[in-house]
Amino acid sequence: MSKKILLTTLPNDKCIKDWKAPTYFEANKRGTNYAPSDYIPLGILSLASNLDTKKDEVIILDASGKGLTIDKTIERIEKEQPDILGISSNTMRVYALSEILKKTTTPYKAVGGPHATNYANLILKQGADGVFMGAVADFEFRDAVETNPRGIVNCRTKYSETQFPDRTLVDYENYFPKKGVFFQAKNRLHLISSLGCPNKCVFCTAHEEDMQRKTPSILVDEMQHLFSIGARSIHFLDENFNVDETHLGEILDEKEKRGLEFELSGRGQVKMSRGLAKRLAENGFKRIHVGIEALDDEILRFYNKASSVRQIYEFCEIMEGAGIDILAHFVIGSPIETESYLQKLPNQIKELGIKHPRFQILSPTPDTEYYQNLLKEGFYDRDYWGDYIKHPTPDFELPYPYSNKRLEELKAYIKEIEEKYHIKNE
Ligand code: B12
Questions:
Q1: Which helix (H) or strand (E) covers residue 132, if one does?
Q2: Confidence of residue 32 (pLDDT cuts 50, 70, 90)
Q3: What is the residue with the minimal CA distance to atom 55 of ligand 1?
Q4: CATH node for 176-364+401-421
């Protein structure tokens, strides 16, 4: 029997308030608290692309990307009356998740995504019928459409075996960036070539020794798909796209074999051989996004970065030699940072030839080692995240662990640097 399946992202509405990110990370057009999803929602598109869509009816609702409120999202779901509701969850939007689970009447509610992997039992208590744990859930979800399993489903689908997400299932043209200061070619779209990151930075949770990667031929099929719908610029929005140089080399072999030409960019780490940098540049690779975070070895150690100032200088020199621009993220606000370090930082960045620096204030996000350390060290009198995740409230804001005066100083510092570098919303 044919089923009606509605897959949705969670709205940003009433989610956690963000005090650490300056304007260019904030919602620009929609007035919500967090970074808007201007990115096509690849998780739910991947689920849909691996279903038997000829048989079932699939509706994609990108509540986050469309800037829907929680109430509007619920209204849309109720209007559609699906047989199956699939919700893609992340921890920043748990308030929306609990409200949608409470106020929708779909007979089978499935929840997946990173938050589901960490908090499966809690989500079951909040009203989900099936919770899908694991980084890739496509084949388990395809089976679940038939069997509607209750409780926890452990997912073992391999990323390399899934079909790439078909962007034509949504109004993809609306996801082409409206402004384009960073890139010359038109219509940038992103893909994810690998999952996870082997590094263990204290402020992140993406730690994964066994990264999963798309097979080069499927990935280049995906690139061809993006090209066929008008994209001329493709961004690897992996957590760390340049860990495995052999794999990247194989992707480039396949791309060259098919004679494809477009602009490329990617999000990765500050380690790359000269050979790969040269080859990427020859293949249209124009810009790399990296988390440099600090230009001081002690601060890098505090963040548990797998890099040193020496390596960062070497990396910047290799990128300059290859003609690849750098967009570098810096994290300020560590307790061991000195005023003289902050004073010197802008000049150091200039000296490195970094074209696009971006600054954020160190933030203890949920489930990170940094947050756990603050709890252990007594900076918080109770487990704010733990309590919030169990009983989410609208517009939650985590108290700043150090003094509020310090927070204001850091914000002022970022504002000054933004003006210096003419950083605007993009
Ligand atoms: C791209 C990306 C973004 C984009 C968003 C693009 C978009 N539209 O999704 C941007 C840059 C905006 C972003 C922002 C942030 N992100 Co982000 N992001 C990612 C990233 C790198 C890739 C997501 C993706 O497309 N994956 C590929 C698809 C195919 O996989 P997937 O979405 O996970 O879906 C699969 C499974 O999870 C599962 N699944 C997913 N949904 C569902 C639903 C059902 C019903 C089922 C059955 C299965 C299922 O099946 C899918 C297919 O196999 C992930 C890391 C990662 N590798 O996944 C982090 C990640 C999702 N982000 C994360 C974080 C922390 C953030 C920020 C908070 C960062 C910050 N500090 O500001 C913000 C939050 C913004 C917000 N308000 O929500 C965390 C989430 C952790 C958590 N527990 O929730 C992740 C996991 C990274 C990490 N490990 O730390 N992010």
A1: strand 130-133
A2: very low
A3: 239
A4: 3.20.20.70
Contact in structure between 361 and 19 (CB atoms under 8 Å): yes
**Length of the chain, please?**
426
Strands 212-213 and 194-195: antiparallel
Q: Is the pLDDT of residue 36 over 90?
A: no
- Cα 185 from Cα 167, distance rounded (Å): 19
* Fold observed for domain 4-161: Rossmann fold (3.40.50)
Tens of pLDDT along 192-226? Answer: 999 999 999 999 998 887 899 999 999 999 999 99
Q: Which amino acid is at 96?
A: A
Q: Give me ligand 1 centre to Cα 403, in Å.
A: 31
Phi-psi map region of 304: left, alpha, beta (phi>0 left; psi -120 to 50 alpha): left
Compute φ and ψ for 292, nearest 5 degrees: -80, -40
Q: Please answer whether residues 131 and 113 qualify as being in contact, where contact means their C-beta atoms are separated by less than 8 angstroms.
A: no
Q: Whose CA is nearest to atom 28 of ligand 1?
A: 43
* Tens of pLDDT, residues 131-153: 999 999 999 999 999 999 999 99
pLDDT tens string 151-193 = 999 999 999 999 999 999 999 998 888 765 566 778 889 999 9
The Cα 274–Cα 267 span in angstroms is 17
Give the domain ranges of the chain: 4-161, 176-364+401-421
Interior angle at CA 425, CA 423 and CA 426, nearest 5? 100
**With 90 as the cut, is the pLDDT of residue 30 above it?**
no
CA atoms of 40 and 173, how far apart (whole Å): 10
Contact 120, 152 (CB under 8 A): yes
Q: d(Cα 406, Cα 333) in Å, to the nearest integer?
A: 8
Phi, psi angle pair for 247, to nearest 5°: -60, -45
Q: Indicate left, alpha or beta for 31 from its phi (over 0: left) and psi (-120 to 50: alpha).
A: left
| Ligand 1 atom, smallest distance to 207 CA | 89
State the pLDDT at residue 39: 87
For residues 326 and 330, give the distance between their C-alpha atoms in angstroms, rounded to a whole number. 12
Which atom number of ligand 1 is nearest to the Cα of residue 111? Answer: 45
d(CA 361, CA 23): 12
Please give the DSSP secondary-structure letter assigned to residue 31: -
Measured in Å, residue 135 CA sits from the centre of ligand 1 at 10
* Average of per-residue pLDDT across 312-329: 97
**Distance from the alpha carbon of residue 237 to the mean position of ligand 1, in angstroms:** 11
